[in-house]
Amino acid sequence: MSDIATPDIEIDRSKGNFSFKEDYKYDAGVGLTEKTIDYISDVKGEEQWVRDFRKKALKIFKDKPLPTHWASKDLETINFDDVRYYLSKGQKASRTWDEVPDDVKETFERLGIPESERKYLAGVEAQFDSEAAYSKMKDELAKQGVIFVGPHEGLHEHPEIFKKFFGKVIPIGDNKFSALNSACFSGGSFIYVPKGVKVKQPLQAYFRINAENFGQFERTLIIADEGSEVTYMEGCTAPKFDTATLHAAVVELVALKGAKLQYITVQNWSNNVFNLVTKRGMAEEDAEVRWIDCNIGSRLTMKYPGVILRGERARGEVLSIALASDGQHQDTGAKMIHGANNTTSNIIAKSISVGQGRSTYRGQVVMPKHLTHCKNNTECDALLINTNSRTDTYPAITVRGDHNSVQHEASVSKVSAEQIFYMQQRGLDEGTAMSLAVNGFVNDLVREFPMEYSVELKRLIDLEMEGSVG
Amino acid sequence: MPTLDTLTFDDESFQAHVADFVSTPWLQNLKREAWAEFQRLPMPARTDETWRFSDLRKISLDGFKPATEPHTEEREALLDRSHLVDGFAGRLVFGDNHLLAFDEVDPELAAKGVIWKPLPQAIREHPELVKKYLAAEDHKLGGDKLRALHYAFLQGGSFLYVPKGVEIEKPFVAYYWSCHCEEAIFPHTLLVAEDNAKVNFVDYYGSKECDCDCPALSIAAAATVAGPGAQVFRKVVQDYHLNTTSFQLEANIGHKDAVIKSLALNLGSQYARMENQTRIAEPGANVHVYSLTVATGEQEFDQRTLQTHGAPSAFSDLLYKNALLDKSRTIFSGMILVEPDAQQTDAYQTNRNLLLSPQAEANSLPGLEIEANDVKCSHGATTGQIDDDQLYYLRSRGIPKEVAYELLVFGFFEEIIEKFDNEELKDNVRALVQRKFSNQ
Asked: Are A28 and A250 in contact (CB under 8 A)?
C-alpha cells in the first residue's frame, strides 16, 4: 500500500486568540533590575524577608548561565531585557463575577470559566497577567479549613503554614528559570488542605496572558496535610502576538503522611510562548503525588515534573501527553527521586509529532544506596505523523541499593498503513481513520483526565485531523 | 597518581617521536595535527553531556609517557600468554607498542590480495590504502582529546585488508599488552573488508602479570569498514590490570547490505571507557553490537554508544549487559540517531544491569533521536537483582542457594558469551569470566 497521505494539521487555538487593549494601573516597565523587584514588592506591600528572597533570587538568576549545553539553543532568542515583568490593573481578586472588570470578565467568559465553575469545580482562581482577577471557593470547604489564596495572601495571612514549605521543594537556585520566578513571582495559588479533609471536586486555576512581551511568573504551593486528598487543575492560554512571550512558573507540592495530591495541567499557550516551568512534589510516608500533564501549545516548553519520594511507601506518578506541531518543541519529561524504602514511581509519557514539530522526553530516575525495594517503571512512546517530524528520548537512570528495580522502555512508531487500511475498508474516510488512530494512541492517558478535560482533548485532536488528509 | 617528577606528554617527547616518521610526510602531518589538537582541547568537564556521570577524578593523563620496549623476559612471558585462539588465520602480538610476534597470513590468501601486517609495515608498503582509512571517521562520543593523543603517538597496530569476495573462516588475532608502569600504549586496529568479503577478528587487550601498584594507560582505537555485502565479525576482550586506565574508541562503518557484528567482553582496568559508534552509510546494512561487563571492586566502566542510521532500510541492534559487584560503577549511555532520509529503519537498543551488591551503582542513559517517521525504534533499560522467583524455583529442586545463585548469574553472562561463535574462544572467554567472578 502506498504511503498514507501526510496530514497538514492546523491546531485550533481560535478559542484563546483574542486580546483587549492594555490599560494597566501598575506596570514595572521592561527589563529586570533591583528596581523592578522593589516596584513589585512596593505594589504588593511585602514584608522585608520576601523582598530579600526576591533580590537573592535575582542575583542567582543573573549569575546562572542558560542550560544550552543540553537544552535547545532556542532559549538564546529570549531577550530578558525586553520582557515586562509585572502588569496589573490594581484589581483585588473578586469574589463575585459582577465585580470583575468588564474586559477581564469577558476574557474569562469567552474561555468558559464561570460556566465550568458552576458545573463541576470546588473553587476557581482566574489570573489575568500578573494578578488574580477572580477567586472563589465553595463555602463548605472554607468551613473545613481549606485555604485557597494567592501567594501574597498566603505568605502574609498564613505565614505559619506556607512559609515552612515556600521555596523548600524547589530551591531558588534549582535552575535559571526557578530563580527568575523566585525574583519576580506574582499570582498563582497557595492551597492548604487540613488533616483528613478530602476535597471531592477539583480546584482550578486559569492563567491568561493578555499583554504583548509579557512575562508571567505565577507561583503555586499546595500543601495536603496528613490523610487529605485534593485535585488541582490549571489551564493556560494567551493570544498570538508577533513577539515571544515568557511564562516561567514554579509549582511546589507537599503531600504529608498518607495524603493524595493530584495536579492536572492542560497547557495550550499560543505558539510564541516560551513555557519554562519548574514543577516538583514531595511525598511523605504513604503519600501519593500524581502529575497529569498535557502540553499542546507554546513555542518551546521545558517542563519535567518531579516527585521526591521522602517517606516509606510513597508513590509518585507522571502521566504526560505532548503534541508538537510546526514550530513547536515540546521538551517534557519527568523526575523521580527515591529517598526512602519501598517507594514506587511510574512514568508514562506519550508524544505526537506533527509536521516539523519536535517532541523530546527527558527523564531522571534516581535510587540512592541504602534503599531497598524501590521500583520504577517508565514507558515513553512517540508517534511520528509526517516524514519530517522529529522525536528524541534522553532518560537518565541511576540505581544503587538492594532489591531496587527499574525498567525503562521507549518506542517510536508511525500510524501503520494496515490500521488505516483496515478502517477505510470498513467505510471510514482516511481523515477519520487517522484521527481515530491518533486518539487511540493517547486514549489510555486521556482517560486519566477529568471528564470535561478529556472530552476537550479528544475534540482538539479530532479538529487537528479534520481536513488534514485527502 | 603523579609522582614528584611528573612525567607527561610534552612537546619534546612528541618531537622525538614524530622524527621517526620522516619517510612518510603525510603521517607526520596527521600526527602534528593530532598533537596540536590534543594541546588545544580541554580535558573532559563535568558539564560535557558525553561525560555525564563519569567520575572524572579517575581520569588523568599526568604521570604517563609513551611506552618503552619490553625486555626479553617480559617478551617471553607475554608471548606465552598470547593463546586465546590458536586456530588463527594470522596473529600479531604487541608489547608496549612494540611488535613481539607476527604470524603471517597463508600465502594462498596473500596471493588473493589479503593484506595482514603490522600497521607501520602496512604504512610503508601500502601507503595509499592505509591513508584512505586511517583516522577517516569523525569521532562523536566525546573522547576527542584522547583520540588526538592516540594519533599523535600511534606506533604499533594491526592492519587487515580483505579484497572482494574473499572469505576467511579462521579469525585474525591481535594482542596488545601493557607492560611498564607509568607508560601509555596506543593499540590500533584497522579492519577493511571489501565487497562480499567475510572475515573474523579478535582483539585482546591485557597486562603483564605483576603485583605492582602503579598506573598504566591505554588509549586504543579501532575501525571496522565493511564494504557492500561484506560480513565482518569483530570480538574484543579487555582484560587489563586493575591499575590501568583504558579508553577504547571504536568506529564501525557499514556499506550497502553489509553485516557487522561487534562483541565486547570487559573485565579489566580501574576505569575503562568504551566509545563505540556505528554509522550505517548505505541502505540494507545489518549491524549487531553486543557487550558483557563484569565489574568488581571499585572499577568503573563508562560505555558510550551511537548507532547512526544515515541510509534507509537498515537494521541495527545493540545489547549491553553489565553485572555489578562490590562498589563498582557502570554507565551506559546509548544513542540511536535516525537521520531524516533513513526511512524504514529498524533500530533497537537494550541495556541490562544486574546489581549483585547494594553498594554498586548502575547508570543508564538510553537515548533516541529520530528524524524520520517510518521507523521501528525502541530502547529498553532495566536494572535489578537476581529474580527471587527463579532462585526459589531452583532451590525447590534441591539446588543449594549459592549454586543456584551462581547458575543464574552465569545464565546472565551466557547470553553474550554464546555469541563468541568460535568454540576455542568461547571456552577461554568463559574461563576468564568465571575466574573474575569467583575471585570475589
From this structure: no
From first to last of the 470 residues of chain A, give the pLDDT tens digit: 334 444 444 445 556 667 766 677 888 888 899 999 999 999 989 999 999 999 999 999 999 999 988 899 999 999 999 899 998 877 666 667 676 777 767 777 766 666 666 566 667 777 777 777 677 777 888 899 999 998 998 999 999 999 999 999 999 999 999 999 999 999 889 999 999 999 988 888 888 887 778 889 999 999 999 999 999 988 877 777 777 789 999 999 999 999 999 999 988 888 889 999 999 999 999 999 999 999 988 999 999 999 999 999 999 999 999 999 888 999 999 999 999 999 999 999 999 998 889 999 999 999 998 899 999 999 999 999 888 889 999 999 999 988 999 999 999 988 888 888 999 999 998 888 888 888 889 888 888 887 767 777 777 666 655 544 43
Question: Which residues fall within 8 angstroms of residue A375, CB to CB, at 6 or more apart?
Answer: A343, A344, A345, A404, A405, A406
Q: How far is A393 from chain B (nearest CA, A)?
A: 5
**Chain A residues closer than 8 Å to B370 by CB:** 382, 384, 390-392, 412
Rg (CA), chain A: 22
**Alpha carbons A166 and A219: distance in angstroms, whole number:** 10
CB contact under 8 A, A412 and B376: yes
Which pairing describes strands A87-88 and B315-324: parallel, antiparallel, or unpaired? unpaired
Residues of chain A neighbouring B379 (CB-CB closer than 8 A)? 393, 408-410
Distance from the first to the final alpha carbon of chain A = 15
Please state, in angstroms and rounded to a whole number, the distance separating the CA atoms of residues B262 and B244. 23
Q: What are phi and psi of B246, to 5 degrees?
A: -125, 135
**pTM given for the model:** 0.90
